[in-house]
Design a protein that fits this description.
Layout: H1 2-16, E1 24-29, E2 32-37, H2 42-56, E3 64-68, H3 73-77, H4 84-87, E4 93-97, H5 105-109, E5 116-119, H6 122-132, E6 138-142, H7 150-159
Parallel strand pairs: 2-6, 3-4, 3-6, 4-5
Antiparallel strand pairs: 1-2
């Protein structure tokens, strides 16, 4: 029965294509890696961060800069906002796009202190991330949407950083 189950799984995977948006490396520019992940609630965020941390290790040369867009209905309502700081415990810096939220993201992330930055404007958020990024960093973008094309904006901005 086990072989039959694996055969069915393999056939389903072929039909539906590869699994995307799970720690998908979108590019590396100036030694900064930019990842995309579908994580959009605290449990998924914590799992994704832990997976990247296992992959890259820890230490000064293995910083994770998490970029979060809370855009699911439950996240927009702030249902799980109190769980966000704990879900981001393993990141070095957290950036949150706070446009169109029904709650105060800065207040929710306050337990992270200076490790968290919140911005309503996507352009300002990209500038803040680029200002903090340095060679060897891993920028982990987490959203269940396109996030305004932030991946390309980050990669383009990294390419012009002197």
């Amino acid at each position: 029965a086990r072989d039959h189950d694996l055969d069915q799984l393999e056939a389903a995977t072929r039909r539906h294509g590869r699994i995307e948006r799970r720690l998908e490396l979108r590019g590396v520019v100036n030694e900064v890696s930019v990842y995309d992940d579908f994580a959009h609630h605290p449990t998924a965020i914590a799992t994704t961060v832990a997976g990247l941390r296992r992959k890259i290790g820890s230490g000064a040369a293995s910083r994770i800069l998490a970029v979060l867009e809370p855009r699911s209905n439950t996240m927009k309502l702030g249902v799980m906002k109190a769980q966000l700081p704990a879900s981001l415990a393993e990141v070095d810096l957290a950036f949150c796009h706070a446009a169109n939220l029904g709650w105060d993201a800065a207040e929710a992330l306050a337990p992270m202190g200076e490790r968290a930055l919140v911005a309503d404007d996507l352009g300002a958020l990209v500038k803040a991330i680029i200002a903090e990024a340095r060679p060897g960093d891993h920028i982990l973008v987490m959203s269940n949407g396109s996030f305004g094309g932030i991946h390309g904006k980050l990669l383009d901005a990294l390419a012009i950083v002197e």
